[in-house]
Amino acid sequence: MNARPRPGFPARLDRPADAVARPAAAAAPRSAPAATTALQRTLRTAPVPQGLGLDSRTVRLAMVHKLAVQGVKDARVLDAMGRVERHRFVDTALATQAYEDTSLPIGLGQTISKPNVVARMIELLLAGRTEPMGRVLEIGTGCGYQAAVLSLLVNEVYSIERLRGLHDKARQNLRLLRLPNVHLLFGDGMTGFAQGAPYAGIIAAAGGEAVPTAWTEQLAVGGRLVAPVARTAGGPQALLVVDKTPAGLQNTLLEAVHFVPLKSGIA
Ligand code: SAH
């Protein structure tokens, strides 16, 4: 629980916004300019929700500043986190909390991950790469927020969700942004999405006891997977990075995390 008082809006920036929200680096993916242009158009034209009294760009840049202080270093990731309006992905009643470092309910017992966790996982996915990443599979679309952030950083995003209600919600949330490189799929992500394979990256927003073999099979050689895993059913989870090398799979277990469970089947 966060015992500290919530900041008022608009939040004050402690250092210039451009110190952290740099324009997309030269390493931006080939398809990024088109996606970015559509997103920027939306940022300019979409109405800010009524009655919130927040300057969303200012609070978003304060969030980005905090992410940088917390240790997120990749300028590409910070830039993308600064562009996507997280408050549009949560219920209006929760919009004033959208830029705090907290997970929030998105319906059907699921949650949108903390900004810090989203940024950390994407940073891990892209780490060590200067070349644009090709196709990425996201397991667990939820409200579509992470898919929108990914769309600014990789060439193609395939995002799969097992709950029809959330798949529809994500479609609605993303419609306004018109991101041509995001493909939303309804289905059981346990089996991945073979039609889009091989993937340069796979990122899971729900944690099981192990990484399904379908995921590592669908990962390209040279590709990387980032997922929460639990050692025992319902036990504590940790972030797992799997690199698929010509010599085989290399696993690296990192810090503890807390994600909703990975479940089989659709509902
Ligand atoms: N990335 C999301 C986070 C959503 S929470 C966001 O930005 O909002 C994780 C999601 O994983 C939940 O919506 C849950 O329904 C979904 N999920 C769990 N098991 C799944 C599976 N086997 N296939 C697809 N989605 C799954």
Q: Could you write a compact summary of the structure shown?
A:
This protein is α/β, with parallel strands linked by helices and 267 residues long. The protein contains seven helices and eleven strands.
Description:
- This protein has 267 residues and is α/β, with parallel strands linked by helices.
- The chain has a single domain, classed as Rossmann fold, CATH 3.40.50.150.
- The chain has seven helices and eleven strands.
- Strands 5-4-3-6-8-9-10 form a seven-stranded mixed beta sheet.
- The protein is globular.
- The N terminus is likely disordered.
- The site of S-adenosyl-L-homocysteine has 24 residues, from strand 2, helix 5 and strand 4.
Per-chain topology:
Blueprint: H1 32-45, H2 56-69, H3 75-83, E1 104-107, E2 110-112, H4 115-126, E3 133-139, H5 145-151, E4 154-161, H6 164-175, E5 182-186, E6 199-204, E7 206-207, H7 213-218, E8 219-230, E9 237-245, E10 248-257, E11 260-261
Parallel strand pairs: 3-4, 3-6, 4-5, 6-8, 7-11
Antiparallel strand pairs: 1-2, 8-9, 9-10
